[in-house]
Amino acid sequence: MNAKQDDFARDWRDTVREIEGMVFDMQSFISATFKFKEAIGPEDNAELKIRTAEVRGKTIWQFTKGPESQNLSRSAAKRTLGKLLYETPVDQAHVTTGEADLHCRIAKKGRVLVSRSKLDLERDVAKTRSHDRQKDYPLTRFDSAALLRVLGFTDSQGSMKPSMHAKYRQVNEFLRIVETTLADLAPSSDAPLNLVDVGCGKAYLSFAAKAYLEATAGVKICFTGIDVRESAIASCRRMADALGWTEDFTFVVADIADFKAKIQPDIVMSLHACDTATDEALAFGVESQARAILCAPCCQHELQSKLGTGGPHQAILRNGILKERLADILTDAFRAQILRVMGYKTQVVEFIDQQATARNILIRATRASRVGMHNAVGEYQALREAWGCTPFLAERLAAACSELVES
Ligand SMILES: C[S@@+](CC[C@H](N)C(=O)[O-])C[C@H]1O[C@@H](n2cnc3c(N)ncnc32)[C@H](O)[C@@H]1O
Fold it and tell me: Model pTM?
C-alpha cells in the first residue's frame, strides 16, 4: 500500500466509524443513503437506503436497495453495512440524525471529503472532538487484544460485540479518570498501587486498569475486587486464569458493609453499585483512608422515602418523576458534601455522555484535609436543614464525624 492509499484507508475507517455511530448508536438516527460506484442490488441498483422502524417492540434497521427491502437486527445490520462500506467502492453517503447531517463524498483522487450540517456546528465540533477522543481510547494504546477477548468485549475474530460496546466506552472513559487521579497521587515507580473495586461484578474496570496502567504508566497495580455475588467472583477468577494472571489481585465474596481492607487502598473505585451499595463503597473508602475515591453511582432510592411530600417543596415532591430526579441530585450532592466534610477534595463530573448511560455522574474525591473542616460542615448542615432529612451515608459515617447527624 502506498502513502496515499494508507491515508485513504485511515480516513475511510474513521468515517465509517462515525457513520456507524450515527446509524447504530444514536437514538435520534433518521435515515442514511449511500450511493455506490457499482451495482449492489437488483436492476443495477447502486443505492442503499437505511431507516429504522419498531417491529413487535424491537428496533429493526430496514435496508432498501431499489425495489428490495430487508429488515435486519442491529448486529446483522451493522455487519452488512460494514461489509458493504469496506468491500464496495462508495461514491457518496448522507446520514441524518435529529441533531446533525453528515455528507461524505469520495473525490477522484481517493480523498474522503466529509461535511457536517452547519445548523449544528457547535454540536458537530463537540462530536468531532468526542470522535477524536474515541479514536484515542486508553484500551487502544497498548496490545489489549487478549484482555478484550477474555473479558468478553470481542469475539473470536477480535471484533467488538455490539452488546459490549457501551460497557467498553464506559470502561475507557473511567480509565481516563483513573489515569488523571493517578497523576494527582504521584505514585513512586517501585511501590505498587492498591486499587479496590467495590461491587466489582465482572471487574472489567480493574482488569482493564491493571493492564492499561502497567502497560502505559509503568506502575505496578495490585487490585482487590469485592462483590456479594459468588457467581461474579467465580467469573473474575476464571478470567484471571484465562489471562494467565497469577498474582497481584484478590477477589472476595463479601457484602461491602462487612469488608475490611488489610492494606490502605490508594484508589477505591465503584462503578454502578446499586442504591446504598454506593454509600457503602464511599464509607469504605473513607474508613479505609483511601487516598482517592472514584465512584459512579447507580440507582438511588433511599433518600426518596425520606423526602416526604409536604413542606415548602410540595410542588416538586407531589410529582413522582420530579421527586425521583430531585432525590438523585440531592443524594449525590449530599454524598459529595459528606466527602468534603470527611476531608476529601471532591468534584462531581460527567464521566461519559448521557447517551451512553443515564448513570453518567462520577464523584471524584482525593484526600486533602482533616475531617470536619468548619466550612464543609456548615454547608452540609445547611443542605440537611433545607431538605429536612439525613442521608444514609451520614448515618453510616456518624461514628467518624458526629456533626453529620447532630443539628
Ligand atoms: C450494576 S453491577 C456493576 C458491576 C461493575 N462494577 C460494572 O460496572 O460492570 C453492581 C454490582 O454491585 C454488586 N453489589 C451490590 N450491592 C453490593 C453489596 N452490598 N456488596 C457487594 N457487592 C454489591 C452486585 O452484585 C453487582 O455485581
Answer: 0.69
